[in-house]
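Session log. Operator J.P. requested a structure for one protein chain; no other inputs attached. Running the standard single-chain path with token output.
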Amino acid sequence: DALPIWLADRIDEVARGRPAFQILFYLVAAELVAKIAAGFEGEGQSRSHVQKFFAEICSSESKQRLSRAFRNAGNVYLSLTATVDLLYDVRCDVVHRGQYYTFSLPRSESSTPMLSSLGEHSPVAEISLPELRQIVLQGTVLAAKLLASR
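Structure written below.
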């Protein structure tokens, strides 16, 4: 279902510079795709399905890119799992606390890396919103191909 991606694309019109909204919708799409691919019909387990989407459905290039998306204060890149957890925590901040203004990403691939604005231990973001969008879309296509081949 392309609705979450379409919504994320529209959000920038009213909340430019607030990528947490788009991240929310990208992760909704990732969760939905992972649950469909797994045949999961229950409730909950959102975080684990988002992790499965990025770790099991996405391409190795996408996984590699995500494992180079954020650097911590010690200048060490976050792992794929830690990156997805970070993005999922942003999603939770929007959904459960209404905090859509505390997270930043570069606007384009050529932008300067930036502090992600999550407090004193904020990681430096080196992935742009369009890159994250592309990873989710590519993962969705891979999942559709997987389902079609079953």
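Operator note: The chain has a mean pLDDT of 85.
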